[in-house]
Amino acid sequence: LLPLVITAVVGYLLGALPFGYWLAKAKGVNIMEVGSRNPGATNVKRVLGAKAGNTVFLLDALKGFIATAIPLLFQLGGPAGSSGYDLGGVIGVAAAVLGHSFSCFIGFRGGKGVATAAGGLFVLMPLPCVIAGAAWVATFFISRYVSLASIVAALVIATLPWFLSFGLIINGVATLLGLLVIARHHANISRLLAGTEHRWDRK
Ligand code: NKO
Predict the structure, then answer these.
(1) Does the model's pTM come out above 0.80?
(2) For residue 63, is pLDDT > 90?
(3) ipTM for the complex shown
(4) Is 134 in contact with 121 (CB distance < 8 Å)?
């Protein structure tokens, strides 16, 4: 049990690293008070430009990837091939996304979990992730709404694994993470329904 508790704590702390907040702060901007007031890659890109936004996406995805890959590599959920060996990775990604969304470093606020969930789930279920990524890209280019693209990708992650041969726990966590990501977009959903959501301009 101890290795899994450590996985959860380390995963939470990794996920809680608020890269978007820090990068904006280094440029003299409080990202929690400008644009969509979100510390995610999208808002950093909106406010501070492509280079900063892409950096935040990479770092936020990387922390999810590491929180998931390390426990798998060290077989903290049991030896590879055994039933439930994925447990370490499953706990790692869940903890990282919770850490990102409710970060102890910025008053238990945080981002929407898209990049961090993508980085972690890519380790556990690459195929659903690639399909969710394709759905994200298609939705974005059709609608120009980043938030709608993320919601559609989260719906794919919440449902598609059940049609493939992953385990019950891994599917359950994918569904919960997909629903959490959608719930974190509640303000975006209100704006989408009201027709006031920010559309990403062609630059
Ligand atoms: O500022 O409220 P905003 O408009 O910033 O931001 C809405 C946005 C918040 O999310 C982000 C992260 C953006 C990352 C975009 C990368 C797209 C790649 C998606 C891969 C799909 C994997 C699906 C995992 C979902 C659970 O939405």
Answers:
(1) yes
(2) yes
(3) 0.96
(4) no
